[in-house]
Amino acid sequence: MIEVKNLTKRYGATIAVNNVSFSAQAGEIVGFIGPNGAGKSTAMRVITCYLPADEGTVTVDGYDVFEESIEARKRIGYLPENTPLYTDMGVVDYLKFIAQIRGIAGYTRNERIKEVIDICSLEQMMHKNIGELSKGYRQRVGLAQALIHDPPVLILDEPTAGLDPYQIIEIRNLIKEIGRQKTIIFSTHILSQVAATCDRTLIISNGKIVANASPQELALGGLDQQIMQIGIIGPHEEIETKLEHLDFVLDFKRVDSEAECFRYHVTSHKDHRTATELAQFVNQNNWELTELYKTTIDLEDVFLKLTRSESQTRGELENE
Ligand code: ADP
Q1: Which residue segments constitute the domains of the chain, with CATH numbers given?
Q2: What element of type H or E holds 167?
Q3: Is the pTM of this model over 0.85?
């Protein structure tokens, strides 16, 4: 449904999006996460035809966003970071106006307005002015405008920014519900939302995609890595020195210790026979193995690990 190939976008000397490629299938919910300034909004603006790219191509439902922009736009619903609302308009009037400028014929217009009011649970607010609504309801109106022409693709830039935890859950559930029928790309800073909402996560750092995997895969250590938890009864200094010298161990970290038992998270390549080799390693050293299993790590750890190299953006992240 969405095909992005070698997309590059510069603002003067700043490369906001740097040779990015990915695709999104029909019915897939894809989460963009990344530190501030990573290039998420810029990528979304190019996909939605708001900005031209410097290099690369983007197609939406087979239509090139540069060459066949009008056809591509018909298939896209876009909720930018700052919800485009006229606060002095009533909800229904606003939706009517949007339907009109999107070219929805008079006889289907009212039907569509009813449908999006229903999907976005706006019945109780439909006679109010947008300016009177809470931020959560305004966001629903924003979603309703993005949905009014029934596009197969929705691009939502930080749809939960500034909402309270209840509103976040409501919008998240709404996105999941809508995502059953549509392809959705949404960006967020909130890592738990990714696990709760997305089929796939793209982690973006300094204009580049540093991971493209399901939240479950990411929690297992990233794209091509796995993490084993191992418990060993033995001398921890010796264990750690020897772990450091094992070829297949990319990284390890002591997670806790209890009496004489030390527990570690050991990262290795996904395809490696890590469990067998770790068991042999413990045996050969005459230590005692208390546990050995594949484990998951916090998405936050994966995120920090994958975006860590960018000292400037890390600074921004820490300041948030
Ligand atoms: P994100 O959405 O991940 O926070 P953006 O796409 O907004 O990232 O920004 C990516 C980079 O492009 C940042 O370095 C930002 O400062 C820069 N940038 C974004 N918009 C503009 C603009 N209109 N003019 C110049 N630089 C911009």
Answers
A1: 2-216 (3.40.50.300), 225-294 (3.30.70.3100)
A2: helix 165-178
A3: no
